[in-house]
Amino acid sequence: MNNYRAIDIHCHTNFAAFDEDRDEVISRTLDAGVYMINVGTQKDTSKSGVELAQKYEKGVYATVGLHPIHTDKSFHDEAEIGEGGSNFNSRDEVFDAEYYRELAQDPKVVAIGECGLDYFRTDKESEQKQRDAFIAQVHVANEVRKPMMLHVRNGQDGRSAYADVLDIIKSEATVLGNVHFFAGSKEDAKKFLDLGFTLSFTGVITFAKEYKELVEFVPDDMIHAETDAPYVAPVPERGKRNEPLFVTHVVEKMASIKGKAVEDMQAILRANTERLFKIV
Ligand SMILES: [Zn+2]
């Protein structure tokens, strides 16, 4: 039996930003009755996420996958991979299905990803690499019968990564998934929901008013709360490094937008997570 009140379905305590105090952060989260899913973004963070999940008896889960940004060399985020360290260089990683398939066998691995398409700072050539890596990951998810953790971001010129991800999952996917950090339109949301995909929201809903309508729009049984820690800390923790415990602020905001008691919202979110990610 699990005994927890909330779960952060998408965070990265496996990232370099937590190197100094990772175990403290995880322990205070679990002590407060909050579970977490650490999301992998390339080979190293996928492996370390699985190792973290194994280290704790319960409450810490993992996903394994290749983030679209890491299919290209250009991107380097210190919070994720540290200060230019030699073994944590920026990626240009080609998706290695064998490697991820093996990691995915672990019972604590609850999804494949984060995978998808990110057109925010890319060119045509890297988009093709992203497509190839994404389709390969959909196939691994199909094989291992685990859902997908999707990362989708439109181009600054308005190119719709949401539309392209929808096309790919319609033609390739035989499993469901969640669209993390959903920032698409209501029309995009409806198309994912119609396919049975859930949508998750971060701390941005605590300070960006434009999310209110979207959160209201997503049916109660199709929504999740997440932090995407170490990024985007919610109110009242703005300006700090984010951490999974702060998901409680996201849940509170969601409850207020949906006009529910916090405990009721938590129960709904736990049920949604258990259904999609088979948290046991
Ligand atoms: Zn993430």
Automatic annotation (TrEMBL):
SUPFAM superfamilies: Metallo-dependent hydrolases
Alphabetized InterPro entries for the sequence: Metal_Hydrolase, TatD-like, TatD/YcfH-like
Keywords: Hydrolase, Metal-binding
UniProt xrefs under Pfam families: TatD_DNase
Binding site for a divalent metal cation 2: 151, 180
UniProt superkingdom: Bacteria
Annotated residues for binding of a divalent metal cation 1: 10, 12, 114, 228
A GO MF term: DNA nuclease activity
Protein name: Hydrolase TatD
Lineage: Bacteria, Candidatus Zambryskiibacteriota
